[in-house]
Amino acid sequence: MPERVHIIGTGLIGTSLAIALTQHTVEVTLADASPTTAALAADLSGGEVADGLAADIVVVATPPDVTAAVVAAALARHPEATVTDVASVKGVVRAELAAAGAPGLGRYVGGHPMAGRERSGAISARGDLFEGRPWVVAAVADTEPDAVALVKGMAEAVGSVVTLLDPGEHDEAVAAVSHVPQIAASLVAARLADLPDTAVALAGQGVRDVTRIAASDPQLWTQILAGNAPAVARVLRAIATDLSGLITALEALGPEPTGAVVAPGARAALAGAIQAGNAGHARIPGKHGAAPTAYAKVVVLISDRPGQLGRLFQDVADAGINLEELVLEHSLGAQFGLLELSVLPGVEAELRTELTRKGWRLHA
Amino acid sequence: MPERVHIIGTGLIGTSLAIALTQHTVEVTLADASPTTAALAADLSGGEVADGLAADIVVVATPPDVTAAVVAAALARHPEATVTDVASVKGVVRAELAAAGAPGLGRYVGGHPMAGRERSGAISARGDLFEGRPWVVAAVADTEPDAVALVKGMAEAVGSVVTLLDPGEHDEAVAAVSHVPQIAASLVAARLADLPDTAVALAGQGVRDVTRIAASDPQLWTQILAGNAPAVARVLRAIATDLSGLITALEALGPEPTGAVVAPGARAALAGAIQAGNAGHARIPGKHGAAPTAYAKVVVLISDRPGQLGRLFQDVADAGINLEELVLEHSLGAQFGLLELSVLPGVEAELRTELTRKGWRLHA
């Protein structure tokens, strides 16, 4: 746990970190290319706009395209301090530092707090931004162990769950779990643009889920994808190969009547793709990083009147049952919704009995 | 509204329809290739296993690969009745009927109730399966108007929202809003299969949403995709072209240092793909089929103890505020969750004030 932290760059992440650290009585100093922004961040966080030359940790929280240059300058200006950053891609920052021959690289520890908001800037900062979120600490063989421990301590102090990965592992991981899903959502959503209204009116929960993140900010995502181009391209090439196989299979099936026994290999290719998706889906951890659990689902019809949800969750609580996940489904044209409650399989029957007894209509 | 309905095929859809119709005092007769299954459906629904020769409507609810043959037989056997089906692809059924020269085609009205469950079979049937769900009625120029009206009346009687589309429009629509999203989810999920545990542990809400439907049944989806092969292939080819452009752009960017000004066209290609996704995403209707609304989001920290959700929703109801959408987010390793409440923008400030006053911790 550091005593003094100097934060360079007072946008959403830098200012949120400043707020969280001052709440833990860490002495925070701030710097930003814009004096006005730095002053706002100081007001919001209780930190001080200053050089921070006595800092234990310097956190570079600038936009990604200047991260490496600012880290190099910080290593030179703060010769005793640990320097870390918050850029969402780690290999490219380290490569640029190495190429520039930056001194004191053993004191640099890559970092990636996986927290964010739809809004940006100091004004949107929150002291609890990092709570319960992963914070990747990306060290390499010659990174000083004390520096790693200090960054880890800081991340945990603000509520993050720290994962140690090397920079390459980190970039491969976020390509698959973050960058490629974003691209898939955008490509599927783009196909909806030219559909007639009657067609998009058929959109159900499936396409809504798949395309939810397609509403993301193009400028931010261009920086993120460009910074991790090789790893993202690698995953996308694998997907393009799978996709090409599916298109070939569908073309082999062609406009055949139902039930025609043609191209059995083509049907196997379709089934294989869905099965491979099953296997990958099963890898995603359940709530709180626990092992994946197949939750039992109970769907309840909820009218649109205020108070229905409160009464329902009170009834669930009275039954002593904890909810693992919940999703409120849209209902096209109907004045009610379907609320899907996920619970541990062992309490499903009890939940159904209790809710039915209390007069709720269960749907599935 | 029909007075007598004969249902052929007593799986999930057929039996659910039987239950719903008998609740509306429609006289229901049932048939199935399996006498045991038909008897079970009769017990569950109050319908009768019989020929149903006096039926106004015959509903063919068999598996998709025998739908056209059973429809043709029903048109011959019930020379006065309207015949409809429930297959999830419409063009191929009609093409096969036309190719076979089935008589009485003017009395055939294609149908697609867009309702389902994760479980199948009569035993999983529910009378409210169709409530609030789209039911596509797919007629063509020489379909008898009375037949269309009868099927529409039946679908509305069981709570569905009817959309009239021609078979080709229907198949193009479900390719884009259902079949292609399924494939995208499966392909993205498949890429997670070989990741190390530390990498999948970084999975956030984005990839969870994109891949949720990747858990779907391979056998069912093989039938669905094979039955709509040309339309699905058409959308997938467009996506493959977009994907190929993105891969080229990412490869042009290469492993360049951050901030390097290379391949500006490549960055524009990335931004363009995300922007196209924004445009498509904006087409998806909001709750209840209304025009899309940009809801305001309020995120509340919820502890894992039973009763928290009940208390929260009671507080929301006491404030007289209605929730439009809600999502419970996972929090890696933390013993609490983040509940995202979506409300109309005009009541966001009031909701924030009320929840803060009641002691809730708002996150974003």
What does this structure look like?
Two copies of one chain form a homodimer. The relative contact order of chain A is 0.08. In chain A, helix 3 (67-77) crosses helix 4 (91-99) and helix 10 (229-253) packs antiparallel against helix 11 (264-281). With 364 residues, chain A is α/β, with parallel strands linked by helices. In chain A, the strands form two sheets. The first copy, chain A, has an eight-stranded mixed beta sheet with strand order 3-2-1-4-5-6-7-8, with helices on both faces. In chain A, strands 9-11-10 form a three-stranded antiparallel beta sheet, with helices on one face. The model of chain A is unreliable at 330-335 (pLDDT under 50). Chain A folds into three domains: 4-165, Rossmann fold; 172-281, 6-phosphogluconate dehydrogenase C-terminal fold (Orthogonal Bundle), CATH 1.10.3660.10; 296-357, ACT domain (Alpha-Beta Plaits), CATH 3.30.70.260. The radius of gyration of chain A is 25 Å and the shape is globular. Chain A has 13 helices and eleven strands. In chain A, strand 5, helix 4 and strand 6 (108-113) form a beta-alpha-beta unit. At the A-B interface, helix 3, helix 4, helix 6, helix 7 and helix 8 of A face helix 3, helix 4, helix 6, helix 7 and helix 8 of B.
List the helices and strands and how they pair.
The structure is a homodimer of 364-residue chains.
Chain A: E1 4-8, H1 12-23, E2 27-31, H2 35-45, E3 48-49, E4 57-60, H3 67-77, E5 82-85, H4 91-99, E6 108-113, E7 134-138, H5 145-157, E8 161-164, H6 167-190, H7 197-200, H8 205-211, H9 218-227, H10 229-253, H11 264-281, E9 296-303, H12 308-318, E10 325-329, E11 336-343, H13 348-357
Parallel strand pairs in A: 1-2, 1-4, 2-3, 4-5, 5-6, 7-8
Antiparallel strand pairs in A: 6-7, 9-11, 10-11
Helix pairs in contact in A: 1-2, 3-4, 6-10, 10-11
